[in-house]
Design a protein that fits this description.
Bound molecules: SN-glycerol-3-phosphate
Order of helices and strands: EHEHHEHEHEHEHHEHEHH
CATH class: Alpha Beta
Strand order of the largest sheet: 1-2-3-4-5-6-7-8
CATH superfamily: Aldolase class I
Distance between the termini: 37 Å
Number of domains: 1
Strand content: 15-25%
Number of helices: 11
Shape: globular
Helix content: 40-55%
């Protein structure tokens, strides 16, 4: 399972990247706004920092302008992945950009039919939003499972990029149902390592080791 960091915080991305836990980065207009940074500048810095795909989202809503913005974003760096909303215009732009060899991430996916359309339009990634479905008492993980089955039925190469991940359980469930990628805030990724029995066990090991009076170095 690939781990993407859902953030534009260079420090947080770098910290996880140094551990080898960053296969890519996703951003969206809200994340960019929250960063307070210039969009193209922060995307350029992220692209220098990580080798994997960095999703930068268009803000136009008409297909022609989406394509123009996508081409502009691709000038920033070779690992820019153009993020497009799952609308008919976004799908049209996805088809055009994908045919040009541009990596695309179709986002704001909330149904299996939407994911089917994105795959048929050559999307590199599809981003189903788990958390936002859960927020309205629907089953976000069921969407991932349904898309996995549909894509496998027909051999679609579009990668399922599980997004709107809010908890470590979301990550586990996505891995169990076979999402290709998950994108999560840095805090969720860091929290994956935490377990009280690990902390308790390590404290006991170190307490017993201290009694030996030995050192390794
Ligand atoms: O990548 C999409 C993600 O940023 C949305 O997350 O928590 O705003 O639904 P959230």
């Amino acid at each position: 399972m690939k781990f993407f960091v859902d953030s534009a915080d260079l420090e947080q991305i770098s910290e996880l990247n140094d551990i080898g836990l960053v296969d890519g980065v996703t951003t969206n207009p809200s994340i960019i706004a929250k960063s307070g940074r210039d969009f193209k500048e922060v995307i350029a810095e992220i692209c220098k920092l990580v080798e994997g795909p960095v999703s930068a989202e268009v803000t136009a809503t008409e297909a022609g302008k989406m394509v123009d913005e996508g081409r502009e974003l691709r000038k920033i760096a070779g690992n820019v992945c153009v993020k497009l909303p799952l609308t008919m215009d976004g799908l049209k732009a996805c088809s055009i950009l994908s045919r040009e060899g541009t990596p695309t991430n179709v986002t704001l996916c909330f149904s299996p039919n939407q994911a089917l359309l994105a795959a048929k339009c050559g999307a590199t990634f599809i981003s189903p939003f788990i958390g936002r479905l859960d927020d309205i008492t629907l089953d976000g993980l069921q969407l991932i499972e349904d898309i996995r089955l549909i894509y496998d039925n027909y051999g679609f190469e579009t990668e399922i990029l599980a997004a709107s991940i809010r908890s470590v359980n979301h990550v586990k469930e996505c891995a169990l149902v076979g999402a290709d990628v998950m994108t999560a805030p840095p805090g969720v990724i860091k929290n994956l390592a935490n377990h009280p029995l690990t902390d308790k066990g390590l404290a006991a090991f170190l307490k017993d080791w201290e009694k030996t009076g030995q050192t390794i170095l």
